[in-house]
Amino acid sequence: MTLLDENAAGCTPPAGMAPRSGVMGWMLFDWAAQPFFTVIVTFIFGPYFVSELGNNPVAGQTAWAHAATIAGIIVAVSAPFAGGLSDSAGRNKRFIGAMAVVQAASLALLWFAAPGTGYFWPAAMIIAATAMAELSVVFNDAMLPHLVRPERMNRVSNDAWGLGYLGGMIFLIAVVLFLSADPDTGLTILGQAPLFGLDPATGEAARLTGPLAACWYLFFLMPFFLFTPDRPPLRPAGRAIAAGLSDLKATLAALSARPVLIRFLVARMLYMDGVNGILILGGAFAAGMFGWSTMEIGIFGIILNVAAIFGCFLASRFGRCANAGTVVLIALVILVAATLGIVSTTKEATLFGLASFGAVSGNGLFAAGAEKAFLAYGVLIGLAFGPVQAGSRAFLATRISPAEAGRFFGLFSLTGRMTSFLATGAFAVLTGWTGSPNLGMASLLVFLVAGLVLFVPAMGSGKRRH
């Protein structure tokens, strides 16, 4: 029986729990938000930004990485204040609603990012949308302990995470099947003209994903605003900011007495920088190297998302006979190997030239051997990036008491974002300096390996909660 089964119609929710409709509304936040990350940031608009808005794909990759870096810095600076404001002021829906308006407006304006527009103002819209999306997650996550009992938080959180992956994949599939067309034939993968008469020569399919993602987000946020109980009002905003900062300092002071948790949180901060860098930059990297169109990038995204869902299922089954730390360790090893494979790949070879494929031998999808190798590395990343995140959350849950879960999961969320700009920044600097996106991608290995090295000692240390 699931949490939602227990709250079926006709049953009164136990004390401290939201009704079934409220929990479902909260879960649909991830469903509403994920297409922005899947379609705009990673697989459709990001590669279009790199390959079409300017004349140089390397400059496009550098500009995209700079945009991600600036957005990450904004989130890193703002997230502690957002968390403190949530705990001290309450009424999180008002903050989420205000940021949703800014995010939707920024996404809608992407329609005007025609080829040759340049990078500046489209990058500004991406920065604004990313900052609003990430800060909204802080306020949304802070609501979970107030909606369900502690023993059900992990299940509800994972269900919401799975819904997010599914929503992003459905949106992506719709774009690939009905909107994205081959520039040579003008037809979609189904052999039909794209909906709305979209012109692939002017990137209209990629540009339309902005307004469509905005509409999707606003529409599927409605159950959240209508049915999910808000946090009660606590303090006026001015006093709440000061109180929130005081609470944050108290939590950090308590953490200093628990070195194992510090080691784990720092390790996660590093390896999640690497993971997020791969997800943000991977599609753009492929577009620059292989000249993939929107349709090819979209298919790659679908493959990656299917692998992610399958990877989470495998990790869940494997988790019955292994602890969360082992799941994280295996996922990190896979991510390091797959990223090394990507770094070793060129247009005609992989594994640093040990596997040479020669020139492209056809015009079909992923016709080159190097493209097929890149797809294989992408599948490995897809299998691992879900379990490394879910396993990290479970790892922390086994080492804290229920009474302190809210504080430490808030810190967990913060450390996952506060340095997210470092990996993309390293990619931008190395790529701009050397002119080689491969060397830029190699910088992500530093974050993954450093996180792995720090995590291994934490696996067998510390006191577990049973």
From TrEMBL:
It is a multi-pass membrane protein. It comes from the Bacteria. GO terms for cellular component: endomembrane system. It is found in: Endomembrane system. This is UMF1 family MFS transporter. The chain crosses the membrane at residues 28-51, 63-83, 95-113, 119-139, 160-181, 208-228, 269-290, 297-316, 322-343, 374-396, 408-433, 439-460. The keyword Nucleus does not apply. Keywords: Membrane, Transmembrane, Transmembrane helix, Transport. The keyword Membrane applies.
